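User: Round two. Same drill as before: sequence, then structure, for each protein.

Assistant: Same drill it is. First protein:
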Amino acid sequence: MIKKPLAFICMFCVKVVFAQDPVFTLPGSATAYSNAALIDYNTVSTFKTAYRLQWPKLDGGWNQYYSEYSHYVHPIRGYITAYGMYENNYALSRQSYYLNYTSNIRVSKLVSIRAFFGGGYFFKKVDWSVLSFGDMIDPRRGFIYMSNDVPRGGSVGNVDFNAGLGAKISFVTLAVSASHLTQPDESLVKGKSPLPMHFTAQIGLDYDFLVSRQGKLKVLPFFMFNQQGAISTFQYGSVFEVKGIRVGIASRRNDAIHIMAGYNHKFFGINIGYDYTNSELQGLTGGAFETNFVLKMGKNVRELQKSQFDSPFLY
């Protein structure tokens, strides 16, 4: 049984933590989740999985498990992408599953436009059996009593929809997306609690900075803006790659510095990252750890003829 947090703290976490969508640090950890218009059109199929542990010093942290699979379906001239995410923090948990369709339109040799639309279902719950309440406390001996509190609700499920656009203009990637288009109810107790729409804007660059017989230095700067309700985040940084070896650094404004490293092969990729908190919470949360793995299966010759849609948000 949880001894430190009381019930009102847990309810606060329900409102603040799970009413706010997670934001991954590594730019390619959850491509379909952030904007399915940016999935890898250069492959026939792509599998990706990611794990993020946020605030490990806060009694268990906030765990996020993510997986996606995309496959090119020739009769519909586009990709079908399925992805799911599981989040938990002691008493709180959330599962979500989505299916998206992404199409590609070649405007010219240097310009391609992507569009996606999708929907899914989420299920969220609170485990009342592990919550602590004020009437369980003895002034001298601590938590020794049974609570008289009666569980109220505790679970909710609802359908959800998202959509977005992406464009590749020469070596520049632009993307915008919107999640929770119908603002579904996610209240865990009585009353309504609409899930705020989540808007994401992304800019990525990819170009070869130095080229020699020994290889080339690939530079991938990126910018990402998230807005959900009254909360916004702005992340910017760059990834540098030489012969598949990647290192990167980024910053989330007034919050954290991100350090990342990885390896990108033509068949797979693996990346790790750490968030160092530089806000007033420095030293209290333990930052965040994140890792992802990408498996790339088969070259999509048809789409390679249309556009090379490389981006820092792929891996």
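Second protein:
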Amino acid sequence: MDLKLFALAIPIILTGCGTYSPPGNAEFEAGYYNGCMHGYALNSPYVANRDEGKYAASGDYRTGWNSGQNECADEAHSGSIAESWHP
């Protein structure tokens, strides 16, 4: 698959299946969303990994990012993207 097409497909995948609001404050949700995007992209270099400043400074962002990345990577690897979250 063309990498540009893949990069464009990520937002469609994330918004097309439904909505999910992770439990937590705004920092957790932002981290979860960023981590989830990274997880669905299967570590693609074309998707920003994370906000390193927030990841270092905010435990909520860091916890959210790790949770989102793990959950969405598992779904992407299994081939079943059941639901996604978007702001």
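The radius of gyration is 12 Å.

User: Perfect.
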